[in-house]
Design brief:
heterodimer, A: about 270 residues, mainly alpha, 2 strands, about 45% helix, about 0% strand, flat, B: about 230 residues, Serine Threonine Protein Phosphatase 5, Tetratricopeptide repeat, 2 domains, two-stranded antiparallel ribbon, about 75% helix
């Protein structure tokens, strides 16, 4: 699934790390000579002129995303490894979501048909796969990113703690827009906006700076001690969502001093900490 | 994933401040009231990278430590500050690798070991990070060049990495693995100034890959019969 060995010298691909040996133009010449067609599909000539043209094209016509035949799908340009990895991670997550959603719809559909046939209805559903489901990966990725921004807030955190799913009332409680439904770009963006506005109702109250100062003055020894103490007392599995690092002026509720979540403790490697 | 060495790395080899930092990081440091500031996590990642570049023993183990911290941060605060900073540092070092190599072979070798260790341990949804595949190959191919094959240190590093992650790398990009092995065959056959140890290492790795990243029993006997188990 990876591209040919010369593509590591791509000048307009997603990889921008440099080879120590070749200069940019030398790299692209080497690359271009092994390819029959240029970016625009026209047949290339393997000579200097091509090189000049090509580097110029590189500089000017960089679209914001590209697809390679050997790639998995549309990729946006990542200048660095960290972003590439994050994007990869999100793409995998989105794909898993797609599978899950499809299964859910199929099951729901199936149950619906069951119900109808058992009740003697002559109607029957034809296609089990929802025809109007958004499947474009680029769109799903973009939407997921927007959802992530909304979810990665203290407000959302407090919201989900306060109102469990089964107690949510439509209209009253904010509901995450469904990225799999077909909406126009404007409609979707508007839904996201409204959702985030609604979530603000759960913003934490702003507190004095005093609390934070006191914390900074603690040194690591104290911190370690307190942590070890807290670990002894029982903690629940649900307590995995602690403070978020997105909001710096966040208040720190006095009653949230439970120990390291058990999930985290289990991930400790057998690293000698003595 | 190869099992790491039997000795767990001792935290005492770090200075006191660093020890504290690492301890908190490893215990999922992220207390409710002591927010894992981005600065702390960055600090930790820098400490780990710096140490990995100096200490070859550590560079073989740091992947595991990093994995623990990444998981902890993800679970606790859904963040990836640590990983992001780690990868940024690694990328920076990658760009400067030729300089590093000319300055110190030891450091260069540590870097490659570290990079491969990260590749091995830091998986995304149980898959190796795609972003690292080409860079890792670039490093290994550098090690397979004539000037590097002259140094036993570099050959040793090369074969060690291939033992640990060769099969995974091949799955991600078979073509580049072929490219690497063309160079290794050439080096083995044609290069005049290889030490006999270097030749032995190269022959072993050629056989290792040919056997599907496993050494046959007889081959194992040949290469390792003198080595204490």
């Amino acid at each position: 699934m990876m591209s040919s060995r010369h593509s590591s010298r791509h000048c307009d691909g997603g990889r921008t790390y440099e080879s120590p040996v070749s200069s940019r133009s030398k790299g692209s010449l080497r690359w271009s000579c092994s390819r029959k067609r240029g970016l625009d599909g026209s047949l290339r000539r393997c000579d200097g002129q091509e090189k000049a043209d090509q580097s110029q094209r590189c500089a000017e016509n960089r679209s914001s995303s590209f697809t390679t035949p050997e790639g998995d799908g549309p990729m946006s340009r990542c200048a660095d490894w960290a972003s590439e990895v994050e994007q990869e991670e999100m793409r995998m997550g989105v794909r898993q979501d797609v599978q899950r959603y499809r299964r859910r719809i199929l099951t729901a559909d199936f149950n619906e048909r069951e119900r109808k046939t058992s009740s003697g209805s002559s109607e029957c559903r034809d296609s089990p796969i929802p025809a109007d489901m958004e499947t474009d990966e680029a769109v799903l990725m973009r939407r997921q990113k927007q959802i992530n921004y909304g979810k990665n807030t203290l407000a959302y955190d407090r919201y989900i703690k306060e109102v469990p799913k089964h107690l949510r009332q439509p209209g009253v409680h904010p509901r995450t827009p469904n990225k799999f439904k077909k909406y126009s770009r404007r409609s979707w963006d508007q839904q996201i906006r409204l959702w985030k506005v609604k979530l603000h109702a759960w913003d934490p109250p702003v507190q004095e700076g005093n609390d934070l100062q006191a914390i900074d003055e603690m040194d690591l020894d104290d911190v370690m001690e307190i942590e070890l103490e807290a670990c002894d007392s029982a903690e629940s599995e649900e307590n995995t969502q602690c403070s978020k690092n997105t909001k710096d002026t966040a208040s720190i509720p006095a009653d949230s001093c439970t120990g390291t979540p058990s999930k985290v403790m289990k991930t400790e490697a057998n690293f000698d900490l003595s | 994933m190869e099992n790491s060495s039997k000795e767990d790395y001792r935290i005492q080899s770090f200075d006191i401040e660093t020890q504290k930092l690492l301890k908190t990081a490893l215990k999922g440091q992220l207390l409710q009231f002591h927010k894992p500031s981005a600065v702390d996590l960055e600090k930790v990642s820098n400490v780990i990278v710096d140490q990995s570049l100096k200490d070859q023993v550590f560079s073989k183990e740091s992947g595991r430590i990093c994995y623990t911290i990444v998981q902890a941060e993800a679970k606790q605060s859904n963040g990836n500050v640590f990983r992001r900073n780690l990868l940024n540092r690694m990328q920076k070092e990658f760009k400067a690798r030729e300089e590093t190599r000319s300055r110190s072979i030891q450091e260069w070798v540590c870097y490659v070991t570290f990079m491969c260790n990260i590749f091995d341990y830091l998986k995304v949804n149980n898959m190796p990070m795609m972003a690292l595949v080409h860079p890792v190959f670039d490093c290994l191919l550098r090690l397979a060049q004539p000037d590097a094959l002259q140094n036993e240190e570099e050959v040793d590093c090369l074969v060690l990495q291939l033992h640990r992650i060769g099969d995974q790398l091949e799955k991600m990009n078979e073509q580049r693995m072929d490219e690497l092995f063309f160079m290794l065959r050439d080096g083995f056959l044609l290069q005049q100034n290889l030490s006999s140890m270097a030749r032995l290492l190269l022959l072993e790795i050629l056989e290792f890959r040919a056997g599907g990243w496993r050494l046959s029993e007889t081959a194992h006997k040949y290469y390792y019969s003198e080595v204490a188990d």
